[in-house]
Amino acid sequence: MSETLVEASPFAAELDAALARAEPAALTALRAEAAGRFRALGLPSLRDEEWRHTNVAPVAKLRFVAPRPWSGARAAELAEEIARFRLDGTCELVFVDGRFAPELSATLLPEGVAIESLARRLARDAGGLAAVLGRKARFDAHPFLALSTALFEDGAVVEVAPRAVVETALHLIFYSTASPEPQASFPRTLILAGEASQATVVESFAGAPGAIYLTCPVTELVAARAAVVDHYKLQRESRAAFHLSGIAVETARAANVASHSFSLGGAIVRHDIRGALAGEGSEATLNGLYLVEDRQLVDTHMRVDHLAPHCASHELYKGVLDGRARAVFSGRIHVHPGAQKTDAKQTNRNLLLSEEAIAHSQPQLEIYADDVKCTHGSTVGQLDDEAVFYLRSRGIGIEAARSLLTYAFAADLVERVKVPALHRELQEFLFAWVPQGEVVRDAV
Predict the structure, then answer these.
(1) Is the dihedral of CA 63, 69, 23, 217 positive or negative?
(2) Are residues 82 and 225 in the same domain?
(3) Which residues make Cβ contacts (< 8 Å) with residue 318, sequence separation at least 6?
(4) How far apart are CA 40 and CA 143, in angstroms?
């Protein structure tokens, strides 16, 4: 990526520069296809059905510069900033402004797993990734996924060997630095879990406090036959940043993938999540928690395709909104013809802590098979007055009672985290986020 300005709409100069690079034919073809889709779609507006509650005009109004290339000389400067986002007991690789930073990353990897900079992998084997890269996270109707696919430079390729059991969690940290002018980065993660393998991958997205930048990450996770993958995404960007992302999960026969998303930062945040249960007897769990306040906006659009019989999918998304925050959840379970014995459940629950917070929720079912068990539901409401009264009758003040109930609502998803350091991190954030968090800590 050059040092020239990126035109916010429609990013024409940067797209031209990306297509002019001397790259392997397979990569050039992928970029050209994605660039063509972005140019056809353009930046979304409130007139677009999929974006009618999410105004990205603040993104379009800015002019973004490309981050400067990574230099090892910056490692000492950034080490302290990044230290607060590390997770004890994990194997960590760090990416700064979308580029791999080896000086800040682990040098030894657990047995059975290979992690490589995506840029380095493409330089030597673009053809080997052509069948997967950009093909699972479908960008035909998603402008920012198309933009990211056209403009990405680096990221991570995580390959778990067949039958390998990787006990150490892999932690990918994507950190955005402060800059006099807003920056845009497009990191990409490709996770390939081999047959009968087991692994845990955590992706963290963070940035310098108060920095204005755009992060457009895409994650593609492909689980081979009988593979088991636990995936976590922790989004705690600067409160002035924009995070517009995509996640695609595909399961082969008897594979089991759980992906948990935690959205805590950002000014405007969008997650486009797609699950494809392509192998018979496979299972996917897609859960999420968002905590937003002030004028934050978080939008989650999800589609789960049941393509094979005897598959199960479970989605539970919860949100807590305060101030004038906004949340959007749109989820669709699509059961294809022949996907008999499908077991699918999708739930979205929103807790509003103020009169001005607004949540839009739209879970949907689309079923083309006749022997299935599918349910969906959503709730939007405030704290239960009876529950608050019960706690107050036990001598607990009204603010402490409200905080305890808010904590319990959100902690349901935090307790499902299997990575100890990440569990502690989320729990501490929750204690700090709710009013009278120390009282809540003592109570629980």
Answers:
(1) negative
(2) yes
(3) 288, 289, 290, 348, 349, 350, 351, 409, 410, 412, 413
(4) 9
Residue 414 backbone class (left: φ over 0; alpha: ψ -120 to 50; beta: rest): alpha
Could you read off the pLDDT of 381-440 as tens digits, one per residue? 999 888 888 888 888 888 889 999 999 999 999 999 999 999 999 999 999 999 988 888
271 - beta bridge partners?
Answer: 245, 300
Residue 246: helix, strand or coil by DSSP? strand
Label residue 69 exposed, middle or buried (CB < 10 Å: 0-12, 13-18, 19+): exposed
3-state secondary structure of 204: strand
Please state the rounded mean pLDDT for residues 187-202: 98
The structural domain count of the chain equals 2
- pLDDT tens digits, 83-137: 999 999 999 999 999 999 999 999 899 999 999 999 999 988 888 888 899 999 9
Q: How far is residue 93's CA from residue 77's CA, in Å, rounded to a whole number?
A: 17
- Reported pTM: 0.95
Cα separation, 425 vs 26, in Å, equals 40
**Range of 165's domain?**
5-279
